[in-house]
Amino acid sequence: MRKKEICILLVTGLLAFACQPKRIAKSFRGVDNRLSVLLNFDHLSSPLLLSGKEGLFFFETKEGRTWITDEPEEEVWTDSSYVASWSRKDRVVSMTVASQGDSYYLSLYADNGQDILKWGLGLNASDDEYFTGLFERAVDGNQTESWKEGIQTAMNLRGEAVDMLIKPTLSLYTPFYLSSNNYGMFVEGTWPGHYDFCKTNEDMVLIEFEGPSFSAVFYTADNPATIVQQHSLAVGPTLVPPKWAFEPWRWRDNHEHKQTYYDGTEVKAPYNSQLVEDILMMEAFGIPCGVYWVDRPWAKGVYGYADFEWDPQRFPEAKAMLNWLGERDVKFMLWIAPWVAGDMQQVAHEKGYSVPMKGPAGGIDPDSAALIDFTNPEACKWWQENGPEKMLKQGVAGFKLDRSEELVPETRDVLFADGRSAREVRNDYPVLYAKTVHESAKKIHGDDFALLTRAGYTGSSKYTSFWGGDIGSPQEGLRAAIIALLRSSVIGYPVWGSDIGGYWQGDLDREVFARWLAFGCFNPIMEVGPTEDLAPWSMDSEPGYDEELIAIWRVYARLHSDLADYSHQYAVEANETGMPIVRPLFLHFPEQSDAWSDWQTFLYGEDILVSAIWQKGVELHRMYLPAGERWVDAWNPGDVFEGGQWIEVESPMYKIPLFIREGAQTELGNIQQLYEESLQISQKKPDLFVLEKEAF
User: Fold this and answer.
1) 479-498 pLDDT, tens per residue?
2) Which of 31, 307, 430, 583 is the most exposed place for a label (fewest CB within 10 A)?
3) Rounded to an integer, what distance in angstroms lies between the CA atom of residue 262 and that of residue 266?
4) Residues 170, 484: contact at Cβ < 8 Å?
5) Right CATH number for 582-681 from 2.60.40.1180, 3.40.50.300, 3.20.20.70, 1.10.1040.10?
6) CATH of span 7-124+183-220
7) Topology of 328-463 in CATH?
8) pLDDT, tens only, 78-91
């Protein structure tokens, strides 16, 4: 691997320095006489100044925080590395900066550091520097802050602080952020940390991480796309689901087995009534469905999830039901969690396969469930054989992996089987969970399976795809979903979807639902609820049978299905090159300032330009068309626009602004005609008595 020369020059005061382009310079700077290290890595728009609030960096023990403020006592440098050391009481503290390939490494450590609890440092930030990454939620804190009315924070994290500790339920994290200064920084390991992007100090990024040592990688390139690719490949490669996973999905939250369908027709079908209703109605409307998943409760027991045994009252003839779906080319997936209940709970405790559960949380009482220790190989094997593999052998095609963050303890006194504390494992637990399920799915189905996971951390993308947790249903919830999609793409989670309509749906609005259907079409995973066991033909607000929503669903489900090969192609590209499927404009057009500011507009693959609308009442939508290309209006292919301008697009409730790069081979067909056809079809209410009779 190519090594880059690093030239070291020691200066004091504010002396100028000159050296080779690849250099590190150490100096005392400013009136505070604070020790700093200048990192002039390749491709940076301006050099990075490594320096904290009170010194170069700090480490912390139970006795307090110690800042490094003086000249190093020993320095060692080579063509590709620099090591500085300081004596502090009974330990030697060191800093190493080294280059390897296209990356630079920064390490802080001590030769007697078992009692060190935390490390911290700072990096300078220019006035207009842009930061994004770290997690899918818009802002830190309670998840509802991300869809709070009036929220302004979008993709840019400047002015925000973030705790790097996975929180429910928007739970995709990774300690990687991208800077418009042509670098990305990734912190290795799984210990919790904290970022402060110019919130405390307006010209400084402050970074703190727990653990006995600190190690970070700086990726640099002359464009942000390459930096994102470097990181994705380093922590991946990302999983490529089968093509059927890029077909539209349908789900409900409770799946009651009722005596009548939504319209009062008596149920005579032998399977779960709501599942049958969905399949028959979607077939009647011509709404494609490639995946149907069932959430909890689906099994026996107080939580509807005991012993991986079907609840025969809710899901009669479950195995035959799977065959019935298979005959219709519909894959079936199940909700699972990393805890067990029923008889399996007792076995897990007796055999030492569980760890103490933080709780009660998420409606789960630790007295009636056992959290599996996925660092214990025997526990993994037992759980795999008696859980996921048992269901996979029945024909289940994959799983929705829920609940891997809020029940895991956060303390240092709880130890897992591999010797690590719960504090260190907390962020890693979702990775171990996904890896364990991935092993089972691959064992039973080869590569023909799909997993959809709520929580993730470094390495998760090798094993699973993701959805955006329990997002709220107001218009700001859709806003949060747009940000989550784009952030997830930047931090290495390319295959992602959201609960269309939101999960918490007490105030679901039909216009927001329509906009979400359109946005969800251009997510790699399009999964349609809504949660309250509803459908556009059985809404709990007027009109209950919503012809317009049915038509809109049909349009975007058919578009999404038509794009399945396209989506799969770009998932393969994400696996091989690290380039995400969904691309914020700045990944392709970093030199255009408007590409950084228009966060609602993004590329789906290389050819399709989408501008998501989240606010109610929008009839004219303003969006940026990137310069250097001509853009064809997908709704009116005769209209071609020069890039490099902001335009206003007529956007009635059914229409999402959509453009194709001129010269691209991608075609979307006559979308306006598809909508008009869909309206005509939705006006003819299907007769479930006839549909059921024909199906059974």
Assistant:
1) 999 999 999 999 999 999 99
2) 31
3) 10
4) yes
5) 2.60.40.1180
6) 2.60.220
7) TIM Barrel (3.20.20)
8) 888 999 999 998 89
